[in-house]
Amino acid sequence: MNSIPLAELGFNVTGVDYSSKCLDICKNNCNKLNLVQSDIRTFNIEKDKYDLIQSRFVLHFFHKNDSYKIIKNIKDNIKLNGLVYIYVLSLKDSKFKKVSNSLEFESLENNIFHNKTNDTYISFFTMDEISNLFKDFKTICISDEYCLDLDGKTMHYSGFIKYIGQKINN
């Protein structure tokens, strides 16, 4: 769904999602998208093809080791002067306290939590961590945001790190 506005503005957009249901929703809302069903952890980003790569509300649903590999794949393959837009959960997110105190989650290193019930992960990031991951990029914007989330079943506060950077070296 994040790609639809760009496609409607005339940009050539490739959307990648693991869920065929999410891809069908996108396809039904915008037929201008090039959609690929793939696990982003194994998706091969074609080198020097993309001027912008965005990952919003995705990386925090993986173990950070996987997130770091995805970020490396993005950084290695985006065009020179291309832009990266990353949006991940921060320590300010209300879920951080919830999973920290939950018996369902096991706390791992570096603000990573493993859900023992369904064998999934949730990771929380800091601004320093994201800055460090993109230290070889020109930072255009980085912020630690905290806002009331009105989507979903209940209102809650969400905390996110937003990063926009530009690849300046090959």
Would you give an account of this structure?
The chain has 170 residues and is α/β, with parallel strands linked by helices. It folds into 2 domains: 1-39, no CATH class; 50-167, Vaccinia Virus protein VP39 (Rossmann fold), CATH 3.40.50.150. It is built from 5 helices and 9 strands. The chain has helices at residues 4-8, 20-29, 64-77, 94-100, 127-133, and strands at 14-17, 34-37, 52-56, 83-89, 105-107, 112-115, 120-123, 137-149, 156-167. The strands form 3 sheets. A 4-stranded mixed sheet has the order 3-4-9-8, with helices on one face. The longest helix is centred in the middle third of the chain and has 14 residues, at 64-77. The radius of gyration is 16 Å and the shape is globular. It starts with a helix and ends with a strand. The mean pLDDT is 92.
Fill in the keyword field for this structure.
single chain; 170 residues; alpha/beta; Rossmann fold; 2 domains; four-stranded mixed beta sheet; three-stranded antiparallel beta sheet; 5 helices; 25% helix; globular
Structural class, from helix and strand content?
alpha/beta
CATH topology of the largest domain: Rossmann fold
Give the CA-based shape: globular
CATH class value of the largest domain: Alpha Beta
Average pLDDT reading: 92
Distance between the termini: 30 Å
Number of helices: 5
Over the alpha carbons, how many angstroms does the gyration radius reach?
16 Å
Uncertain segments: none
Strand content is 25-35%
CATH H-tier superfamily of the largest domain: Vaccinia Virus protein VP39
Side by side, the strands of the main sheet go: 3-4-9-8
Q: Give the ordered list of helices and strands.
A: HEHEEHEHEEEHEE
Please give the number of β-strands.
9
**Main pleated-sheet profile:** 4 strands, mixed
- CATH architecture type of the largest domain: 3-Layer(aba) Sandwich
As for the number of domains, it is: 2
Fraction of residues in H or I helices: 25-40%
